[in-house]
Amino acid sequence: MSSREVAEPATADADPVREARGSGIPGLLASELATLFRRVRTWAMLGALALIPVLLGVAVRIAGGTRAGHGPPFLDQITDNGVFVGLAALTVAIPLFLPLTVSVVAGDAIAGEASLGTLRYLLVAPSGRVALLVVKYVVVAVFCIVATFVVVAVGVVVGSILFGAGPLTLLSGTQVSLAEGLARSLAIVAYVSVSMVGLAAIGLFLSTVTTVPVGAMAATAILAVAAQIVGQIPQLSALHPYLFTDRWLDFGDLLRSPISWDSFVENALLQAVWIVVAGALAIWRFTTRDVLT
Question: Quick check: pTM over 0.85?
């Protein structure tokens, strides 16, 4: 992560968090996580994501519910059970807002350090370039989990306050307890987080290509939108199974009884392929090119 908040000329020594880190990869990881979550920008993005379920819940509370088939998935179930505010908000956030925040963090990971001149100091550490790249990726993956969790958690809390919470009626018509419904919501958080780590790997690769972080951020976000557009064009259906966005919204199987993990596994395998491809390109680029200039 870059160090824009550092007032002095950008050096690793000028960052108090990095000064306090321990040795080795664990210390580097702790330092990078602390740097990310100390930033105002990070909390601003999480706050913006949290506003989605708040606005959704308040709007439904004021204007009333909607009929089935109108609006985002789960919107018509909000008035019956507030837990669905979190799931409806997640379906709203997945196409654009969530990928946008992930693109910002991933695109800034290496390019931000290079643009400020702090990358050379991080590379002085004995851990090596590959280890630094892995640490950067883990930090972005942690952000993916936190960002997804924030949307669902805030939605469940706001929905419970506005509409109450109780046993959930699944897509298959079966009713489960509130505890099981919340557990399934956490499974959906895991599903969407897995979806985002594929995009994070692409963003990290693009971050090694340029020293302009805004360019890497924009390119990552544009790729996410473009892939979803391609996924909506029937004439390009042969490409759909290979798009990293192809299964982003296929978490409905986690709300059926009996629960089916097939879509979860297939999505995880798809994202794993993209992580391997983008990760290999990022390692090649980061270890063979002078990314400091």
Answer: yes
